[in-house]
């Protein structure tokens, strides 16, 4: 059976993915792959009856029969130039395959190893970390990724790395709907520090499904700026999962952005394993047309004196749908936890929809947890003010929308990326205002 | 400066307007010529603030009768932004805070929009910076305010000065100052007034809406109008303001 036609059922779509190209590996990884595939078969795709998926309509995804990527698409630097961050250490993957000729590792000197994961499978560090964090026994997408991924990034930080590290995952334009598996593993050793940018992009005009899994380990006193940009092409599907384990006194600062794809979902799960860990989570989903963007975050405060500060924003125009679910769990023993979560949302049209679901579960006294959510429209007073200064309605709305987004974007400590994202937002809004 | 021969900028006849179904303006007449300074005074609820907002095109207010023309053009056929481009400027009573939009970016965007409208060259950020460095002197503003978000975290006085800075940059033909003096201490009032005075010329005009005579010590009006019950009930020279200060508004109401 090889289904390439559209209008499959959920089960058919899943079966088709299970037919994906078998990636041969040896030893420890092969065992994980086999286990993952077995769990994938049991888990199957989630339906909307699944509590974690009840707002997320995946029916558009299920219509497609995604084919494995069986040939390497040769791209040039010109094809991807618009996404490059000058001065960055860069790994590039095309349809999940490592593209050495597009990567730039000349700045990866002392203090960091940045390589293709497949080239590094013999490394004891890789073996001891890989698959330990990603829930491939609980999540069907993670299980599929774990079985079918061909390559990915390995980032091992052992010092202070000033230059940003960009992990650029490019989907090439293909004739058939393709399943693309992206994988990243980031380990930051004690007292080390780095900035990692996971960037998902697509060349115009293809239908594809990116299934991305990232594992991050912060050892004691490690620091990571982790920026995740999902700016896939408009007909793409994107399901991502990131698990972070944060050690004692570590600092994890994340920004996750969802601009692209027809349907996207990103789940970020952070476990504060060591005491005194600190994290700052910023997120932004900007959707229009009939896009669906879902962001799920879960923070487990599992050790004393942890701190988490989270701000997530959704902007939805036309008939788009944005979802945010943010769960914060303070476990027994996590005394002195300090947590603030804020969800702020902007509806730009009567037909757009935003679901936001902050959840706090506290199994401990002596904690400070605050959360709040707001949903609003463009402020009429501000709109009139800008018009009274000569700006057209469209210009004024775009400016205010951009300003709402800028609060998240401007905090990204990579100026070249901020500039490029600002441009992306303005382009998307050009499409929004029609 | 009154010059009966100068061009009529604004002509309002029997203007009626309502908000939320309640009629506030009940027949306002006003003519403003280039070079003139007008003050519109009145108690709270007299309709003076409504009048300024209606002229600028605030969407909460509905014009139900009468006419208003600006340089011969029907004002009510124009959107707020078209009125701004035609040369009308409203300094807000309660300036709006806009987080995420820098003061300088907004000023440049607004300035360039008007430049384009006037068939003039847009300024790039560097050229605009030269212009703005000159203009901020008008309101004695610290340059650091340019990089900050519009009005965010500004004090009451700083917000009002920022309105006058916008006026200085946009160089309107008709500036309507809606209670620009409210909430200002005496030093801020002096700075704001000095800024407005420095922008006055024989080609433009100012309409000040105010509750108090105090502002008029600094920006001397050619005409003082008293508004009550949605109409202008008395017009006089600057001495009328002093009389109001001394006697209050009640005697006018009794007379009306």
UniProtKB/TrEMBL annotation, chain A:
One of its GO terms (biological process) is iron-sulfur cluster assembly. InterPro entries: Fe-S_cluster_assembly_SufBD, SUF_FeS_clus_asmbl_SufBD_core, SUF_FeS_clus_asmbl_SufBD_sf, SUF_FeS_clus_asmbl_SufD, SufBD_N. Residues 24-167 form the SUF system FeS cluster assembly SufBD N-terminal domain. Residues 178-404 form the SUF system FeS cluster assembly SufBD core domain. Belongs to the iron-sulfur cluster assembly SufBD family. NCBIfam families: sufD. This is Iron-sulfur cluster assembly protein SufD. It comes from Candidatus Gallionella acididurans. The lineage of its organism: Bacteria, Pseudomonadati, Pseudomonadota, Betaproteobacteria, Nitrosomonadales.
From TrEMBL, chain B:
One of its GO terms (molecular function) is ATP binding. Keywords: ATP-binding, Cell membrane, Membrane, Nucleotide-binding. Gene3D superfamilies: P-loop containing nucleotide triphosphate hydrolases. It comes from the Bacteria. PROSITE patterns: ABC_TRANSPORTER_1 (PS00211), ABC_TRANSPORTER_2 (PS50893). InterPro entries: AAA+_ATPase, ABC_transporter-like_ATP-bd, ABC_transporter-like_CS, FeS-cluster_ATPase_SufC, P-loop_NTPase. Coiled coil: none annotated. The keyword Membrane applies. Residues 10-254 form the ABC transporter domain. SUPFAM superfamilies: P-loop containing nucleoside triphosphate hydrolases. The keyword Cytoplasm does not apply. Pfam families: ABC_tran. Belongs to the ABC transporter superfamily. Ycf16 family. PANTHER family: ABC TRANSPORTER I FAMILY MEMBER 6, CHLOROPLASTIC. This is Iron-sulfur cluster assembly ATPase protein SufC.
